[in-house]
Write the structure tokens for this entry.
Amino acid sequence: MEAFRVIVSGFGGQGVLLVGQILAYAGMFSGKHVAWIPSYGAEMRGGTANCSVIISEGEISSPLVEKADALLAFNGPSLEKFEPSLREGGLLLMNTSMVTGEPRRRDVRSFGIPANDLADRLGNSRVANIVMLGALAELEPVLSFESIMEAMRMVLPERHHHLLPLNQEALKAGAESIKEGVGV
Amino acid sequence: MKTRLMKGNEAVGEAAVSAGCRHYYGYPITPQNEIPEYLSYRMPEVGGVFIQSESEIAAINMVYGTSSTGARVMTSSSSPGISLKAEGISYLAGSELPAVIVNMMRGGPGLGGIQPAQGDYFQAVKGGGHGDYRVIVLAAASVQELYTFTLLAFDLADRYRNPVMLLGDGLLGQMMEEVEIPQDLGDDNPPGKPWAVTGCRGRGRNIINSLYLDPHKLEAHNRKLQEKYKGIMEREQRFQEHHTEDCELLLVAYGTAARVSRGAVDEARALGIKAGLFRPQTLWPFPNRGLKEAARRARALLVVEMSSGQMVEDVNLGVQCRLPVHFYGRMGGIVPSAGEVLEEIKRIEGGLA
């Protein structure tokens, strides 16, 4: 694939921008060009947050994502807002722990991941974002698990490195949920 | 060469440190807050000074004072804050003081909004402050260029004893991209500053001033400035071209608008339309020579900006009004999409056929 374009969206505090940064680092570590754009403004915990990431073989012209190859929707409003931005045949990953509605698009590949429930099972609901990332990595081979782990070592401050094994488990849980076809 | 993933604003901060800047003064404003945030901890690490001033006006005058002593110094803000600095910029230019001023533009006029825009072109390029002065204006179009142009800005400022403005926008400031940290950090032998106020033991006094009550002396000072500006216009025009060699429709855009336009040009090429992009990297001096050359086969031009078309008149002058110059722009914080620009390309191309 020449370029891979992702939108990550959810509530502020769900680690949406962080997932985007991990994607960008993973892309860079794989020798690709990357661009990460956050929403910015008067945002806060509980408000909406989103970011877009482009991972590209070639130089990135417009850094804006107009048609996304994948959408990670962490909550209902995100699904509603960004579903139309998916390209035909794109990947729609919904956090079914939070998203109760059904997707309207029939021309995309939809996957439901009960990310918060899976994270709770690991003992820390805050890694729900990494569960979603694991599901994406399972579906999109441009991202290797190794590069994602390397990216997490980069993004997590050293004082949080004891959480790396937990995050690795979360990645795996997300990937497993796709393999097992949970909630598809 | 080391590659780092950086936010545009952080890249400006780190490049300033790499350029040997040890003095930063600024007052917070979105969307450039990561510059002061970054430098608030980075400056102390390298023994530098970070001051969050009480206002933008205070910051630009601290810049004036620091520059007078010969030290490299920077301030940054976003559109409304730059308006407040305008008086100080005129004084810097009048006193021939080197300084780097960063503007991460947002929507205006007035308090406007906080999303990316390019409505400060006139302010940056045509003046902003009073008097017959010029500021060198560098327009970055990527996080990489924010880094390298910050280095360049300090060199140009010292070389010409003149303020340099680095122009970005909210998108470039907030965006993260990979940055190759260059080995070459700029001038190996920056010019000495025998004019600086460093204590006059053993030499005559140096005076930094922009007040000339004798009109003849002030005119002579102005002539000297104009001579300097002529030299800058001669030597410092910078630009980048994309598919201009055979283009019939030449797009002209800078900064974020150029990134979008480049995408539109590639899509147009895929449709067999001979489009190209001319991207000014210096807005003053405007790269007239390069534009004339790039437009030699063109039948029409299309300027794309996140403003009402403030650059159009410079483009018209650049091609000496010999070609039709079209314009497409968005305002208020809307970034045009490559798709929108492509539609405009098709519309103009249809008229040419």
User: Anything to note?
Assistant: The two ends of chain A are 25 Å apart (CA to CA). DSSP finds six helices and six strands in chain A.
